[in-house]
Amino acid sequence: MKKLRLYYEEHNKGPFKLLWKHFTQQHFAFFGFITLLLLLLLAVLTPFLTPHDPYLQNSQLLLVPPSWQNSGLVSYPLGTDDLGRDLMSRLMLGTSYTFGLAILAVLGSLIVGVILGALSGMSKGVKSSIFNHLLDLALTIPSLLLAIVIVAVLGPGLMNTIWAIMLALLPQFVHGVRNAIQQQLKQDYVTAYRLDGASQRQLLLFVIFPNIWEQLVLMFTMALSTAVLDIAALGFLSIGAQSPTAEWGSMIADSLDSIYLAPWTVALPGLMIFVTVLAVNLVGDGIRVAMKKRREN
Amino acid sequence: MKSSGSFAAVVLLSILSSACQPVLPTTRVHGLVYCAEGSPESFNPQLVTSGTTIDAISQHLYDRLLDIDPDSGTLIPGLAQSWQISDDGLTYRFQLRQDVKFHQTSYFSPSRVMNAEDVQFTFGRLLSVQHPFHQTATEYPYFDSVEWQQLVAKLTVTGPYEIEFTLSKPDSSFLSTLATDFAAILSAEYGAQLISNNTRADLDLLPVGTGPFLYRHYQKDVLIRYYRHPNYWRQLPAMEQLVIDIVPDNTKRIAKLLTHECDVAPIPRLAELSLLSKRDDFVIDAQTSMNVGYWAFNTRMPPFDQVKVRQALSYAINKSNILQAVYFGQAEPANSLLPPTSWAYDKNLNIQRYDPLLAKKLLAEAGYPEGFQMDIWAMPVQRLYNPNALKMAELIQADLAQIGVRAKIVSYEWNTFRRKLRLGEHDSVLIGWSADNADPDNFLRPLLSCAAAISGSNRANWCDENYDELIAKAVHTPILEERRAFYQQAQQYQAEQMPLVPIAHSKRFQVRSRNISGVRINPYGGINFTAAGKSL
Amino acid sequence: MMFHYLLRRLFLLSFVFVALTVFAFSLGYLFPGDVLGNFTGLRNISPAEEIVLRQQLGLDQSYWQQYIYFNQRILDGNWALSFSSQQNVLDEIINVMPATLELASYALLLSLIVGIPLGIVAAVRKDKWLDKLISGFALVGYSIPIFWWALLLIMVFSLTLGWLPTSGRLSVLYEIPAHSGFMLPDILLSNVPYREEALFDAIRHLLLPSLVLATYPTTVMIRFTRESMLDVLEQNYIKTARAKGLTRLQVLYTHGLRNALLPVTRQVGLQFSTLITLAMITEVIFSWPGIGRWLIDSIYQRNFPAIQGGLLVVSSLVIAVNMFTEILHTLLNPLARKF
């Protein structure tokens, strides 16, 4: 039943609702969002969903083609790899490695980045200036290069890769958070709170953060696509995840041997990476556009 | 903007023109490209045992006193025109050819033809500490494994083109040793030049030989470039240039074949062969090859010093599974180090069963009912005898888990791998051996004798007096039947002691473009391009 | 004021180089294995040699003193030996660097030639189908994993169609003497009988790697130019110019382009570092003998002196180029000057 309106009142939607409205109007972005949700679900639930053990070798079923081909089997919908492991199960498990670990790495980096960024954003002076200059420099070095540097020092391995990527993403978070905070500090309402006697901590927690979290989400999506690509790239170069780990990048590297006989073992993991990154980027772009539209209205 | 415009034009042009002529023959350079699976370790065959190095250097750069006929396996004259053996089997006298010229290169110009001095220089290096070049290398693995220093008592030049070897005991495999790719003849004159320039190490880096091709350029892990030797004493090679393109990656090697960047390439993965055989621009040459892929235990390392543990592990692995997954069914299962085509092969050997229950029982008897932890070292390169050691290691890992043995797979880059292997840091290793000559001694001695444990080719570090005695007795008798009996005993002893598990004997496959002809693969060693031709 | 700015940048640059050398120096200790071996690259050091070397490196003195010695060796070109080849690491780097620079510069050029016009077109035709097409293409190129893309291209153009070679810079049968290390100039300078043929072959070898390498920067360039152009088009001076009666094209050309492309100069510097990174992957796939492949190989081989030297050179280069384009950008664009 429609609410009875006695008086004319200006109906303002909340900023989040507005954002959501603008976001869902973009079909591609919304589609990306749904894909991401599904991937996330898959990453969490994968141990219960895989039709076969992703590491079980079956020498009777080497390089079985996907089931849409003539010699494919229904029980192995995406076929098997060169050790007879079910490719679908491995791809599903790969979601929690490549995508899941990327989310964890970005979250970890984001938390540290927010703390450091807040510290640097709220401070002034020479120390802050030197810190900022260094940060700007670190920003110019691509995260993959930084990750390779760090892996070169720590040695190859999936966990080292995650640490490396966390460290490599840190500068952009610190930078982003710092800039966002400093922008907010210039706003009139912040000055008003300050004049009201709010402490730095209160200012940060109750005034500034509620206003920058959307930017944080945006940064998160951008970093997430980088992290997925970096984890996969390091896995592909065999300096990240090591075989037999079902990480997408290292699955491609492992399957290169069979590229002529079983192109799907190379194509499918790559497709998964592509779809994931594309979905993340669609969502990121969607949020950006939505924010812009909201500002314009 | 002008330069970028022209760049775009060039790009466009080349896209269009390459669309018109898919395969571009390099018309101006008459050369052949052989894609090898690894860099050579040295340019002197005396210092190496690896089949890759031998393929890359020995048949192209060098000649030997004797050669092996690839078809019959018999010995034929090489640099030695003729030879006589004394009745007691101790003295071998060789008459040399008098028309053999050494390579003329940017770093050496020969002033004379090959003579007995060069032969003395070559083999003297292996023999005596006094030889000026003996100390420049730390070891001569092949010659150490055949105990050359103990075997050859004296080397005498009996004429300008005649030389005599005196042995300390009769050895029926001596001539075969001289015909291996390791017994390449070097130049004494070049040696003298290096001594006066004080650059002795160059003897093994910048080669001078008498072979059909001469050294031009080498870049590690990239390529070796040879030019035709214009004064070659046999029929001149048809190719002006021979390039060994070093492509360690199997997939890339096939890609290069498909795009005709390689003319000839060894393909250890038989799975791709079916793919290539469907295309009519390629020819596949299959050749039975004398090789064995095996899994060696470091018998100096507990618990592998216990026979029962080794036997247990040998029962635990599913060999037919490995043959299917790694060799794609194109290799023969191995029961002995010797391939079944060898005349000394023991047909009565028990076929190794897959029996995890027995394996568990043996482990319990050895005091490991709960299993243990071990490393499997998987070589990082693809070889004929083991086209994918990592995959094999993964299969073995899964098999071992069934009997409670927790295996970890270890791999390093190839040079590091071999260095660490020589230091004996491994628990067990997946590796193999390609024979250098048809003699069974060439398998049994370098792989398991005590001398080889020191020189490094015995990866099991196994040293057993009984075994050494058997193979020593075998070479001391000239009677074939007796030799065979000794070798069969040695094989049975090995199967019982199980210092290593023989896994497979693989065929050798070589793929070439159809326009290449005359490539010869020697079953006992390197590939030879002397007679190779290329039609456009 | 300008002088002041440059001085400050220079100070920052030298500070960064100090930080880099400190990092490279500390790697000698951070890497597993023997410190002496890590710093010299020598293997199997005999006890007698060890005493001499320890003295030379100052290993018995303070870290500070060791660091000074380390810098001296860097400046003298007396770098460590590579574990695998036992050659001076600096020589090896000088050997492989041109291949990477050559590939990266062609890719950069390609990304500018393709990316900027497309970005402008997309901005001008905002929300029309052409914009959507270009932006969609950019998003796809932005999201595709470069190694997978490279493999797809190889499968189509090399293996299926057989048009283009898959690896290396030149067919191995051609022998071109190296002057500069850059393949195309070297071929043009050489006087081999097969010069045209070799040039053609070199370009065929370049096509796929530079296409792969250019993909990501091109899409970044498209997105960046589009954003930048849109920003400019919303400015008041554009509206004023339109109001004064200039045509769209005139406005675009006289007011829009210059202002929109200024930030792009800064982007070129940033792209350079991305290119060097992506070149590592591209080089591994196409067996391109550049520093990326060399560095990755060194990581596989645990070749610590090579990793140390390689990182020092690559990061110095990346930072120097970045700093340079930033200064250039500031000089060209008065708005970016924050004196």
Protein architecture, described:
The complex is a heterotrimer of chains A (297), B (536) and C (339). By secondary structure, chain A is mainly α. Chain A has helices at 15-25, 27-49, 87-122, 126-140, 143-154, 158-185, 188-195, 200-236, 248-255, 264-296. The two termini of chain A are 29 Å apart. In chain A, 48% of the residues are buried. In chain B, helix 11 runs antiparallel to helix 13 (389-402), helix 15 (441-448) packs antiparallel against helix 17 (465-476) and helix 17 (465-476) packs antiparallel against helix 18 (480-497). Chain C has helices spanning 2-30, 35-40, 47-57, 63-76, 89-124, 129-143, 146-160, 183-189, 195-233, 236-243, 248-286, 291-300, 304-332. In chain C, helix 5 (89-124) crosses helix 9. The longest helix of chain C is centred in the middle third of the chain and has 39 residues, at 195-233. Chain C starts with a helix and ends in a 7-residue tail after the last helix. The mean pLDDT of chain C is 86. Classes of the chains: A mainly alpha (297), B alpha+beta (536), C mainly alpha (339). Chains in contact: A-B, A-C, B-C.
Summarize this structure as a short list of keywords or feature phrases.
heterotrimer, A: 297 residues, mainly alpha, 10 helices, flat, B: 536 residues, alpha+beta, 4-stranded mixed β-sheet, 23 strands, 34% helix
Low-confidence spans of chain B: 1-26
- C-alpha termini separation of chain B: 41 Å
Percent of residues of chain B in helical segments? 25-40%
Rg of chain C, please? 24 Å
Number of helices of chain C: 13
Spatial order of strands in the largest sheet of chain B: 14-18-13-17-15-16
Q: What's the gyration radius of chain B in Å?
A: 25 Å
- The helix/strand series of chain C, from N terminus to C terminus, equals HHHHHHHHHHHHH
> Which pair of protein chains has the largest interface, and what are the residue counts?
A-C, 41 and 41 residues
- State the shape of chain B: globular
What profile does the largest beta sheet of chain C have?
none
Beta-strand content bin of chain B = 15-25%
Q: What structural category do the secondary elements of chain B indicate?
A: alpha+beta
Find the structural class of chain C using helix and strand composition.
mainly alpha
Uncertain segments of chain C of ≥5 residues (pLDDT<50)? none
| Dominant shape of chain C | globular
How many individual β-strands of chain C?
0
The level of helicity of chain C is over 70%
Overall pLDDT of chain C: 86
